[in-house]
Design brief:
mainly alpha, 4 strands, two-stranded antiparallel sheet, about 5% strand
Amino acid sequence: MSREDPKDEIEEQFWEHVDAYDSAEPQPLSDVLNEAGVALKAADEMDDAQLNTKLWEVIHSLALLGVFLHNTNHLSDRQLYVELWDEIFGEPMVLMPDNTDYACHIDLVSSGSEEHTHLYMKYYADEEARRQWLKDWPEDDMPDHEDPPYDRDRSLPQAESRRDGSRDVM
């Protein structure tokens, strides 16, 4: 393989990333966060102020590990933390915190369930996506669009900031 051809170099980097991912050991996020010094507490052990502080500590710590949350504005801080606690923290995931080209994205409405589809269409889908959904699934009920009740997503760390070397992940 010629190092002079950028396509060959990109392909080689791609396969190196695939090999690194395949050889990495999945770990529950709770273990990784604990190893990073984040002491997780159950939501019912914290008042609202403590929970808000803990939630943002978790969000920023996840970003430093290369994990980014999306579509959270339909959940209160407590609901989001409980969702993370109940559904996400225990899931084994492959993380590569030293590789800024790698990111794990957790979308809180992406399971494909009827409930998540409804939430996505109600709060997050633009008009084009809503029209396309109805075209593809004309028998589905389309909820009226509503602005989400919370405004957190615009403050969430983004993978692009991590790749750019920006401290915006904090």
